[in-house]
Specification:
Chain lengths: 315, 605
C-alpha cells in the first residue's frame, strides 16, 4: 500500500507542474498591470521602473516562472497586494474555516444521501422511491443562495435558534462554532446529498439485480445482510469516485455559501482577491485547490482499492 | 398421495404468473412432478419453456411484487408456498440449495470465497466463525479444490470459471441440503470442464445421498445425469418419465422433435459429406431422413483463402509505466487452406485462439506476422482502401444475434447498409437486393421495415446472415454463429448455412466449440489448443481416428444424448485449461507435423 500511495503521489507531480504553469500564465494573460495597480496614483516612470526591477518583472518569462516556482517550493507564495500579509499566512487563516464547512457539508450529504439512496433502491418503484426522488429533485433544483436566505429568515430571524452569520473557531468555542456552521453546511450539503442519493440508488439497483445477490438470497440470508453487507459494499465503489468529484462542486458552492452567511473562509477570500486583482492570493488559492482536489482523488483511489479486492491484488 | 409423502420434493399444479403491463401472464402452467430421495430429475426445454422459472418458483426467489405462484410445493411434507418469507429463508440454502449458470457472476466479487461459503454455516448451522472455517476447508476439499486451506482467503476473481462453479457447489452442499437445484450449472463452461463438474455432482450426490433437480437445455447432459426427465415446452410440462423412456419411446411430438434436432457426436460415421439436420414436423414429431448434401468442394482450384504461419500476440502490460511484461500468444504459427465451397471448422475451448484467428484473417485484429492470401488479396499488406475492398470478399457472422444488430436500425437498413456503403448500386437496387436476401435466408421481404427486437434469436441470426451475404462474399467467417441458439433453431440455421453453401458455393470458416455441430457441417476440421493447430484433416479422419491427446480428450468430454451411458464416469482429471500467456522473450518451439492419412496432420509432441 505505501508503495501504491508513493507511486500515485509521483504521478501527481506532473499534474501539479502543469497547473503551476497555468496559474503562472494566468497572471501574465489577464488584462491590467499589477505595477500600475500597486503604484496607485503614482505615474512617475522611474518609480514604475524601480518597482518592475524590484519584482523582477523585466526578467525573461521563463526565469520569472522558475524563480516563482522556487518560491512556491520553499513556501513563499508571495505577498498580498492588499493586506501586505504573506499569502501562505492568509491561506493558513482561512483554509481551516472552509475545511470545517466542507467536512460538515460532506457529512450532511452522506448522512442524508446514502441512506435515502439505499432505501429508494430497496423499495424500488414504490411510493417511498418516488418520494425520495421528489425530495432529491427538489434539493437539486433549489438554488443554494435562496435556500440559505430562507433558512436565515426562518431559523435565525423568526425562531432565533441559530446565529444568522459569523464564525467561531472550533478550537476556541466548539459549541458556538457548530452553531454558526450548521446552517451553511446543511445548505451546502443539500445539493450534494441529492446527487449522492441518485447515484447510490442507481448503483444499488444495479447491484441488487446481479447474480451474486440472487446467490445470497438462495443461501437464505436475511434482507438486512443482503442489503447492507452483500449489496452496499459493492454499490459503494462508484459512489466513492463520485464523492471525490463532488469535492470540486463543494468548493464552488462554498464561495456562494460563505458570502451568504458572511463566513470569513476560503470562498470569501477568493471572491475578494479576484475583485481586488490580488494576483498572488488568487494564485495561492488556485494552487491550494488543485492540491486539495488531487488529494481527494488520491483518497478516493485508495478507498477504491481497499474496497475492491481485484485491484488490491494488483498492488 | 402416499407416493407423494415419500418424496423429497413434490410439486403439484404449479402455475407461475408474471405481472406484465398490469396484466398477469402465466409463464408456467400446471406443472406437477416428484423428486424422490437420492434421485436426479431433469427439467429440459428450450429458452422460454419455463424451466428456470419453475426452479425459481420452488425456491420462491422471484420478486414477490411481480410474480404469483399457485399450486403446491411440498418439501418433505412441508408446503413451501404457505410458509412465511422468514420461514422460507430458513429453508433456502439449508434444506434446498441452488447453483446457477453463470459461475463468473454468481459469487460476490468483494468477499473471499471462504467467507461466502462459511456464511451458510454460520447462518443455518449456528457455527462459530472458527468452526465454519474448518468445515469450509473440508467442503473445498470435497469439491476437489487444490490447496483448500490456502485458498480460503482468495477472492472469486482468482479462480477460473470451473473452479468458481466448484465453490458454488461447496456453498450449496455446506448445510447438507435434502435437495440441490442445479440451474444450467455447466452451460457456461468449456466442454472438458463441464465433464468434470458433471462427474463431481454425480459423485457428491452419491456421497451425500441428496436429491438433485437439474435444469438444462442440453439433451446430452440429461442423458448422462437424470433418472427421470420432464420435458417442458412453452410453460407446459409436455412429457415426463424415466429418461430411457423419454429418449427411446418419447410420445409427445415436441419431445421427438427436440431429440432429433440434437446433434449426436459420432452420428456421421458412414457419411462422406456434410449432412442436413432432419426436419421435424412439430405436430406429429415425424422426422424426415437427414439429407446428405452434394459435394461443393473442388480442391483442384487454388484455395480461396490461404493462411501461412499466422501469428497474433497481445502484449501483457503491468506496473506503473505499463511496461510490457509478457504476451498472450493467441495465435501461434497457424497455417491452413480453405477452398471455394468448403467448410473448415476451427474447434477448441475458450482461449484456444479460434476466434482471434478468424478476426486476424479479416484484420479486425492486427496480426503480428504471417501471410494471408484471400482471393488474390495479400491481406496483411493492404492499406485502408484495399482493406475496404477486401471485405467484400470476406464477411463475418457473430455469436450473439441480440447484440450484433443495431437496435435502432430497421432490418432492411442493416441488411442493405454494406451494399449502399460500398456503392454497389442505386437505392432501388439495394431494396431489391435486400428483399432477395431476406427471401434467401427464409424470411419475408416485407419484414424489412421492422426492428430487431421484433424478431426471435433464430430470426435475428438469419438477418445477420443476410447482412453478411449482401456483398456477395466468397468466404464467411461464422464465429460461434449457432452456439447461442436453441437446439431446434440451431438445426434450422445450420441447414440454412448448408443450403447457402450449395446455392452460392460459399466457403465457411466455421468457428465453434460444439463438436457435434462441427461434425455435422464440416468438410475439414482443425483442432486448436493454446493458439496452435494440433490436428487438422478431413472431418471423417479427425473424428473417426483422432490422434492428438487433446483431440481425444475433447471428444471424450462431449456429453452424448444416450441414456445408456448414464453412470459413466469419465475420470477426467482436475486439469484447468492452460493459459497462452508467456513471459517476455519466449520462443515458441518449432512444431513438427506427422501425416496420418491424406491431408490428416497431427502435431508431434
Amino acid at each position: 500500500m505505501p508503495v501504491y500511495i508513493g507511486k500515485r503521489l509521483l504521478v501527481a507531480i506532473p499534474t501539479l507542474l502543469i497547473i503551476s504553469i497555468f496559474v503562472f500564465s494566468l497572471q501574465k494573460l489577464l488584462p491590467g498591470d499589477p505595477i500600475l495597480a500597486m503604484a496607485g496614483e503614482e505615474r512617475d516612470p522611474a518609480t514604475l521602473e524601480f518597482l518592475r526591477q524590484k519584482y523582477h518583472l523585466n526578467d525573461p518569462i521563463v526565469t520569472q516562472y522558475f524563480s516563482w516556482l522556487g518560491g512556491i517550493l520553499t513556501g513563499d507564495f508571495g505577498i498580498s497586494l492588499r493586506t501586505n500579509q504573506p499569502v501562505l499566512e492568509l491561506i493558513g487563516q482561512k483554509l481551516p474555516v472552509t475545511i470545517q464547512l466542507a467536512v460538515m457539508a460532506m457529512f450532511f450529504a452522506i448522512v442524508i444521501g446514502i441512506p435515502i439512496g439505499i432505501l429508494a433502491a430497496v423499495k424500488k418503484n414504490t411510493w417511498i422511491d418516488y418520494l425520495a426522488n421528489i425530495v432529491a429533485l427538489t434539493g437539486l433544483s433549489i438554488p443554494n443562495f435562496w435556500l440559505g436566505i430562507m433558512l436565515i429568515l426562518l431559523v435565525s430571524v423568526q425562531l432565533g435558534w441559530l446565529p444568522a452569520s459569523g464564525y467561531e473557531s472550533i478550537f476556541v468555542d466548539p459549541v458556538r462554532s457548530l452553531q454558526t456552521m450548521v446552517m451553511p453546511a446543511f445548505v451546502l450539503g443539500n445539493a450534494l446529498a441529492a446527487t449522492l442519493m441518485r447515484h447510490t440508488r442507481s448503483a444499488m439497483v444495479g447491484v441488487m439485480s446481479s447474480d451474486y445477490i440472487r446467490t445470497a438470497r438462495a443461501k437464505g440470508l436475511s434482507p438486512r445482510q443482503i442489503v447492507l453487507s452483500h449489496s452496499f459494499r459493492n454499490a459503494l465503489l462508484p459512489v466513492v469516485t463520485l464523492l471525490a468529484l463532488l469535492f470540486g462542486e463543494l468548493l464552488a458552492g462554498a464561495v456562494l455559501t460563505e458570502q451568504i452567511f458572511t463566513i470569513p473562509g476560503f470562498g470569501k477570500m477568493t471572491v475578494d482577491a479576484v475583485f481586488n486583482r490580488d494576483y498572488a492570493v488568487v494564485q495561492g488559492i488556485v494552487l491550494c485547490t488543485a492540491v486539495g482536489f488531487i488529494l481527494m482523488n488520491l483518497l478516493a483511489d485508495i478507498a477504491y482499492v481497499l474496497l475492491n479486492p481485484r485491484l488490491r491484488a494488483t498492488l | 398421495m402416499t407416493m407423494a409423502q415419500n418424496q423429497i420434493l413434490s410439486v403439484r399444479n404449479l402455475t407461475t404468473s408474471f405481472l406484465v403491463d398490469g396484466e398477469w401472464k402465466s409463464v408456467v402452467r400446471n406443472v406437477s412432478f416428484d423428486v424422490g430421495p437420492g434421485e436426479t430429475v431433469a427439467i429440459v426445454g428450450e429458452s422460454g419453456s419455463g424451466k428456470s422459472v419453475t426452479s425459481l418458483s420452488v425456491m420462491r426467489l422471484l420478486a414477490p411484487d411481480f410474480s404469483r405462484i399457485e399450486g403446491s410445493v411440498m418439501l418433505a411434507g412441508r408446503d413451501l408456498l404457505s410458509i412465511s418469507e422468514k420461514e422460507m429463508r430458513g429453508v433456502r440454502g439449508n434444506d434446498v440449495s441452488m447453483i446457477f449458470q453463470e459461475p463468473m457472476t454468481s459469487l460476490n466479487p468483494i468477499f473471499t470465497i471462504g467467507r461466502q461459503i462459511s456464511e451458510v454455516l454460520t447462518r443455518h448451522k449456528g457455527m462459530s466463525n472458527r468452526q465454519a472455517r474448518a468445515e469450509t476447508v473440508k467442503l473445498l476439499e470435497k469439491v476437489r479444490i487444490p490447496n483448500a486451506t490456502a485458498r480460503f482467503d482468495d477472492y472469486p476473481h482468482q479462480f477460473s470459471g470451473g473452479m468458481r462453479q466448484r465453490v458454488m457447489i461447496a456453498m450449496a452442499l455446506a448445510s447438507k441440503p435434502k435437495l440441490l437445484i442445479a440451474d444450467e450449472p455447466t452451460t457456461a463452461l468449456d466442454v472438458t470442464i463441464q465433464g468434470q463438474i458433471l462427474d463431481l455432482i454425480k459423485v457428491l450426490q452419491e456421497e451425500e445421498g441428496m436429491s438433485v433437480l437439474f435444469i438444462t437445455h442440453d439433451m446430452g447432459v440429461v442423458a448422462e445425469i437424470a433418472d427421470r426427465t420432464i420435458v417442458m415446452y412453452r410453460g407446459e410440462q409436455v412429457e415426463s418419465g424415466p429418461t430411457e423412456e423419454i429418449f427411446h419411446r418419447g410420445k409427445h411430438p415436441y419431445t421427438r422433435a427436440l431429440l432429433s434436432a440434437v446433434p449426436k457426436l459420432g452420428s456421421m460415421q458412414d457419411r462422406h459429406w456434410p449432412t442436413r439436420f432432419p426436419v421435424v414436423d412439430i405436430t406429429n414429431g415425424e422426422a424426415a431422413e437427414p439429407v446428405e448434401v452434394a459435394n461443393t468442394v473442388d480442391t483442384r482450384k487454388t484455395p480461396v483463402l490461404s493462411v501461412k504461419n499466422l501469428v497474433t500476440r497481445f502484449g501483457v502490460h503491468s506496473g506503473l509505466l505499463a511496461r510490457k511484461t509478457g504476451a498472450v500468444h493467441a495465435v501461434e504459427n497457424v497455417s491452413f487452406e480453405l477452398f471455394q465451397g468448403e467448410t473448415l471448422s476451427l474447434v477448441g475451448e475458450s482461449g484456444c485462439g479460434k476466434s482471434t484467428t478468424g478476426r486476424s484473417i479479416m484484420r479486425l485484429i492486427e496480426p503480428t506476422s504471417g501471410e494471408v492470401a484471400l482471393d488474390g488479396y495479400d491481406v496483411l499488406r493492404l492499406d485502408q482502401f484495399g482493406l475496404r475492398n477486401m471485405r467484400k470478399t470476406i464477411q463475418m457472422i457473430f455469436q450473439d444475434p441480440f447484440s450484433s444488430l443495431n437496435p435502432r436500425m430497421t432490418v432492411g437498413a442493416a441488411v442493405s447498409e454494406p451494399f449502399i456503403k460500398h456503392r454497389l448500386g442505386t437505392a432501388k437496387q439495394a431494396r431489391e437486393k435486400t428483399a432477395d436476401l431476406l427471401r434467401k435466408v427464409g424470411l419475408s421481404p416485407d419484414m424489412a421495415g421492422r426492428y430487431p427486437h421484433e424478431f426471435s434469436g433464430g430470426q435475428r441470426q438469419r438477418i445477420a446472415i443476410a447482412r453478411a451475404l449482401s456483398l456477395d462474399p466468397k468466404v464467411i467467417v461464422a464465429d460461434e454463429s449457432v452456439s447461442a441458439l436453441d437446439v431446434s433453431i440451431k438445426a434450422q440455421v445450420c441447414n440454412l448455412l448448408l443450403d447457402l453453401q450449395q446455392s452460392l458455393n460459399l466457403a465457411f470458416l466455421f468457428i465453434s466449440h460444439d463438436m457435434a455441430v462441427v461434425e455435422r457441417v464440416s468438410h475439414r476440421v482443425a483442432v486448436m489448443y493454446l493458439g496452435e493447430i494440433v490436428e487438422i484433416g478431413p472431418r471423417a479422419a479427425v473424428f473417426d481416428n483422432p490422434q492428438h491427446p487433446y483431440t481425444k480428450k475433447l471428444m471424450a468430454a462431449v456429453p452424448v444424448p444416450d441414456p445408456a451411458r448414464r453412470g459413466i464416469r469419465r475420470g477426467i482429471s482436475n486439469d484447468e485449461l492452460k493459459s497462452p500467456v508467456r513471459p517476455l522473450g519466449y520462443q515458441p518451439p518449432q512444431r513438427q507435423y506427422r501425416e496420418v492419412s491424406a491431408g490428416h496432420l497431427v502435431q508431434v509432441e
